[in-house]
Amino acid sequence: MIKKNIGPFKLYTKKPNDIRYGHLYTMDVVLPVPNCKHRTVRVYVPEGYSEDKKYPVLYMTDGQNIVDKYTTAFGAWDIDVHEKELIEEGYHPFIVVGVDCPKVGHIYRVKEYTLQNVNICRRYSGKRYGEQPYSDSLMDYIVNELKPLIDKTFSTYPDKEHTAFGGSSMGGLAAWNYGTKRKDIFGFSLCFSPAFHLFEPKELYEYVDSLNINPEEFGKFYFYSGNVEFEHLFLQPTKDMYQYFINHGFNKDQVEICIDLKQTHCEAAWSEHFGEAMKFWLKDL
Questions:
Q1: N or C, which end of the chain has less CB nearby within 10 Å?
Q2: pTM to 2 decimal places
Q3: What does the angle CA 77 – CA 80 – CA 82 come to, to the nearest 5 degrees?
Q4: 257-283, pLDDT tens digit by residue?
Q5: The domain at 5-282 falls in which architecture?
């Protein structure tokens, strides 16, 4: 029986929608950030979700893009379809929790997902990005408020091994940031087209060195980049970060990279490679 409410989350029934499998629950929240505070948190539960079972959880940026094309301006990841395929292949079903990005102003999305510890380089910053970012505020909310609520409300495995963070572009950068800065919480980071090119390499890697990245303490990382048009900017910096992890002792079971030279910077590309990225995490659960 489908529940209309699970705790404070309400079953999403708005029409039209193109959710084909499983169910989506939503809750309106006020985030502790300076801009666009009012957001929607979306929780996707797979086909056959049961409180008698426990589920890993993937947290994501840009929650409006996870399953329904009618809530996004650029297309959905179709996670409902991909999860069904993964379950049919024998992988563990999982819950996806997405926090919507700011509805207006690209600048706010950048400030919310970037690194607080590294300045955006001059060729990208100008006056638009000169103010202090506040990505740690969102991170603290997800770790200290949202995750405990999800673990209390839904039937989850709350431990690090079963907790992941994912995103694309600025969201891919955020996923890397969460996986390195909160290595105690997130055991897998899905970093699609991470925006490492926004930073001067010297300053970025000085910061990375300060993290003392140790494969015995950190979780798994999955990197992806395409190469067509705007996406070309993301390719080499993503490869460089992957190589940094390899050089610091990560093996192929801990870090992976996928390069699709024919793909542009778009949700359709990230959707296409979502399943393979999730297998890298789920294969050991």
A1: N
A2: 0.96
A3: 70
A4: 999 999 999 999 999 999 999 999 999
A5: 3-Layer(aba) Sandwich (3.40)
